[in-house]
Specification:
The structure holds three protein chains of three kinds. Chain B is mostly helical. Chain B contains three helices and no strands. Chain B has a domain of 86 residues. The longest helix of chain C has 31 residues. The mean pLDDT of chain C is 88. The chains are: A mainly alpha, B mainly alpha, C mainly alpha. Chain C: It is a multi-pass membrane protein.
Chain lengths: 88, 125, 100
């Protein structure tokens, strides 16, 4: 019981921290990486809730599909000539 | 760089914090009203039960037929999304469905990017 | 196990963070990522109460939501790329020709 609560608190902190990073970080590529961390910690919550299949689906679909798509869009819409982007 | 100015951002943060406070108060107000979690049988595997339901073998102890309809509908939704993405990415000479997204509805010419002055907007942030 | 109201609070926190992102950003990519966060918050609730009642329906719906999020991102990426091609930026306020 107490170990489960500790694990929940740890990964809840991770989830909230990564999510805050997504909306507060200014570089959009860093934001997408933080979104990946947030999705992975949510998958850990699913494992804690005995939903291992959903955890696998979360990692496959979100981290393997959605995150790759978003990273593609970040790369394709980044302008090389924009000084404030290339300086990051 | 922030996209909205400071006062708007502070107002948004305040509103969101108030919403979180309301939801958290409601959640902790319901504390103790839930019975102990039922959970699933410790030796039951959901993946096994989905496999049994897929081949119509009546072995699983968790009813998993509902997942099969979910799989079919998910397959359809992903197909539609793929087609829509390809349709959006396609460029046609006589103007495509995305012509309305251009500046004032003018025609898209091949190789043309809007001539809008990039200094008057906030870049790509 | 962890009582379900903790999961309610966690889900509310993630949802509010996503809402904050949508309210304060003008970049379309941040919109997509914040929408993902809000969908994830809803799915946490579904899975938590599926476990609470020992019922698989919540997990079925969670699977639906995950697949719909993937489809939404596929179409959203297409729209973002069209915005970038036509305007040279992905500000959500720039596509205003259908705005009243």
């Amino acid at each position: 019981m107490v170990y489960e609560t500790i694990a929940f608190a740890l990964f809840a902190l991770l989830t909230v921290g990564f999510s805050l990073g997504v909306v507060l970080v200014d570089d959009v590529f860093h934001a997408s990486l933080l979104l990946g961390g947030s999705l992975l910690s949510v998958a850990v919550h699913y494992v804690l809730l005995q939903a291992e299949f959903l955890a696998a689906m979360q990692i496959l679909v979100y981290v393997g599909g959605v995150l790759i798509l978003i990273t593609f869009a970040v790369m394709l819409t980044r302008r090389e000539t924009d000084p404030e982007v290339t300086n990051v | 760089m922030t996209d909205t100015d400071g006062s708007d951002r502070a107002a948004a943060a305040l509103a969101v914090t108030a919403l979180f406070a309301v939801i958290a108060t409601m959640a902790f107000g319901a504390a103790g009203s839930f019975p102990a979690p039922t959970g699933f049988p410790a030796d039951a595997s959901i993946v096994h039960n989905i496999g049994y339901a897929l081949f119509d073998i009546g072995l699983g102890e968790i009813p998993a037929e509902g997942f099969l309809a979910a799989f079919l509908i998910i397959a359809l939704a992903l197909d539609v999304a793929l087609d829509a993405a390809i349709y959006l990415a396609k460029r046609e000479d006589e103007g495509s469905i995305v012509s309305a997204l251009t500046d004032g509805g003018r025609e898209i010419v091949a190789g043309d990017v809007a001539e809008r002055d990039p200094a008057d907007k906030g870049g790509d942030r | 196990m962890v009582p379900p109201e903790y999961y309610l609070v966690l889900s509310a926190a993630v949802f509010c963070i996503g809402l904050f992102g949508i309210l304060t950003r003008r970049n379309a990519l941040y919109f997509l990522m914040s929408a993902e966060l809000m969908l994830n918050a809803a799915v946490i609730n579904l899975v938590a109460f599926s476990f609470q009642w020992g019922n698989l329906t919540g997990q079925t719906f969670a699977l639906f939501v995950i697949a719909l999020a993937a489809a939404e991102v596929a179409v959203g990426i297409g729209i973002v790329l069209v915005l970038y091609r036509n305007f040279g930026e992905i500000d959500v306020l720039s596509a205003d020709s259908m705005r009243w």
